[in-house]
Design a protein that fits this description.
Blueprint: H1 7-32, H2 43-97, H3 104-127, E1 129-130, E2 133-134, E3 142-146, E4 154-158, E5 165-170, E6 178-181, E7 195-198, E8 201-205, E9 211-215, E10 225-233, E11 235-238, E12 246-249, H4 256-259, H5 278-331, H6 335-361
Helix pairs in contact: 1-6, 2-3, 2-5
C-alpha cells in the first residue's frame, strides 16, 4: 500500500481523460452533423471531401450556365420566329404583286410595306440582346475573313464543324465552282457537286452536313476568293468543371444583307425585292424563298442547341446528385450510429469518474495502519 503513488487513480484518470475526449468529439459530430470536423479526424477523407465538394459546387454553377444558355437560345429563336413571319408576309406580297391585275400604284403600295418589313427585320437583328449582348447582328457568328482583294465577296456564315484554315474559292465557272485549301488541294469529305452558287451566295456542304456560305457579286466573280476561316466565334458556354468543357453556341447574322434581301449600292444599285414591276416581283420570290430557307436552317440549328443544352442540364443534375450522395457518405455523420457511440461514451465517462473517486479513497486506508 503506497501513499505517494496511487497507480489505480492514475490509470482511472487516463482512461477517463481518453473517454472524455472521445465523448467531446462525438458531441461535436452530433452537433454539426459532420463525420469530419477537423483534418485530424480523417486526413485522407478531408482531402477527398474538399476536392469532391469543390466539384459539386462547380457542377451547380455549370448547370446554371447551361440553363442560362437555354434562355439565350430561346430569346434568339423567338426573334427569328417573328422574322420568319415577316418573310412569309413578304412572300404573300410578292405573289400578289406578280399578278397582272394590279396597277403601278398598287405595286408602289406593296413596295412600301415590303420596305417597312425589311427595316423591321434589320431592327430586330440590331436590337435582339441577352444581357446586353447582341444575338442576331453577327456578334455570335463564326469569324471569317476575305484575305485578298475581293470587295464584292463576304463570308456570311459557316458551321462550327466546318474545317478551319485557309481556303480558295474559284468562281470562274459558277456552274462548277471549286473550293480547295490554300495549296490547291481538294478538301476531304467535300464533293464538287456539293458546292452550289446561286443568287449571289455560294454554299459548300460537307458530307457531315456542316456548311459554309460566301456571298459574291453576280457581275464580278472572275478572280479567286481567298478565305480565312478562323474557327473563332460564337458564345462559349462552360458546362463542365474543367477547362475546355464547353458548348459553342453559334447564331448567324440575320440582317437583310445576310438573308440576301438587302439593298446593295456597290458596284451598282440593286434591290432584290423590287416589286414595282411584275417581273421584279416574280424575281423577288426567289430571294425571299432563299431567305426563308436560311432562317429555317438557323432556327433548326437553334432548336438542336436547345435540345442539347437541356440534355446537358439533365446530365449535370444527375451527376451532381450522385456526387452529393458520395460526399454525404464520406463527410456526413450517421446520427443513429453516432448516438449509440455517444451513449456508450457517456456511460464510460460516468463509470470512470466513479472509479477515480474510489481509487482516491484507497490511500486513506493507510491511516488505519498508523492507529
Amino acid at each position: 500500500m503506497k501513499i505517494n503513488s496511487n497507480m489505480q487513480a492514475l490509470i482511472a484518470q487516463n482512461v477517463l481523460r481518453t473517454n472524455e475526449e472521445k465523448n467531446s468529439a462525438s458531441t461535436e459530430r452530433l452537433s454539426s452533423g459532420f463525420k469530419i470536423n477537423h483534418a485530424k479526424d480523417s486526413p485522407a477523407g478531408m482531402a477527398v471531401g474538399n476536392r469532391m465538394n469543390a466539384q459539386i459546387r462547380s457542377l451547380y454553377k455549370a448547370k446554371d450556365n447551361a440553363s442560362n444558355a437555354v434562355n439565350v437560345v430561346q430569346t434568339a429563336e423567338g426573334a427569328l420566329s417573328e422574322v420568319h413571319n415577316m418573310l412569309q408576309r413578304m412572300n404573300e406580297l410578292g405573289l400578289k404583286a406578280s399578278t397582272g391585275t394590279l396597277t403601278s400604284s398598287d405595286r408602289e403600295a406593296i413596295q412600301k410595306e415590303v420596305n417597312a418589313l425589311r427595316k423591321e427585320i434589320e431592327r430586330i437583328a440590331a436590337d435582339t440582346e441577352y444581357n446586353t449582348q447582341n444575338l442576331l447582328g453577327g456578334d455570335q457568328g463564326m469569324k471569317g475573313y476575305i484575305t485578298n482583294d475581293a470587295p464584292n465577296s463576304k463570308i456570311l456564315d459557316y458551321d462550327v464543324d466546318f474545317p478551319h484554315g485557309e481556303f480558295t474559292l474559284n468562281l470562274n465557272d459558277l456552274e462548277h465552282p471549286k473550293l480547295t485549301d490554300k495549296n490547291g488541294h481538294p478538301i476531304p469529305n467535300l464533293r464538287d457537286e456539293d458546292i452550289v452558287c446561286q443568287g449571289g451566295i455560294c454554299t459548300a456542304t460537307m458530307m457531315d452536313g456542316s456548311k459554309l456560305m460566301v456571298s459574291y457579286s453576280e457581275s464580278d466573280h472572275s478572280s479567286p476568293v481567298n478565305l480565312d476561316l478562323t474557327g473563332i466565334g460564337g458564345m462559349k458556354i462552360q458546362v463542365g468543371t474543367a477547362t475546355g468543357q464547353e458548348i459553342q453556341v453559334v447564331i448567324p447574322k440575320m440582317d437583310p444583307s445576310a438573308l440576301g434581301i438587302g439593298v446593295t449600292t456597290t458596284p451598282n444599285f440593286f434591290d432584290p425585292l423590287d416589286m414595282r414591276t411584275q417581273e421584279g416581283a416574280q424575281k423577288s420570290l426567289e430571294y425571299i424563298a432563299k431567305a426563308i430557307e436560311y432562317v429555317s436552317s438557323a432556327r433548326s440549328g437553334l432548336g438542336a442547341y436547345q435540345n442539347r443544352l437541356e440534355s446537358t442540364v439533365a446530365a449535370l443534375a444527375e451527376t451532381t446528385e450522385n456526387l452529393e450522395g458520395s460526399y454525404s457518405t464520406l463527410h456526413d455523420v450517421d446520427m443513429a450510429e453516432e448516438m449509440v457511440e455517444y451513449t456508450k461514451l457517456q456511460v464510460l465517462v460516468q463509470a470512470g469518474t466513479s472509479m477515480l473517486a474510489h481509487a482516491n479513497e484507497q490511500p486513506q486506508q493507510a491511516l488505519q495502519l498508523l492507529q
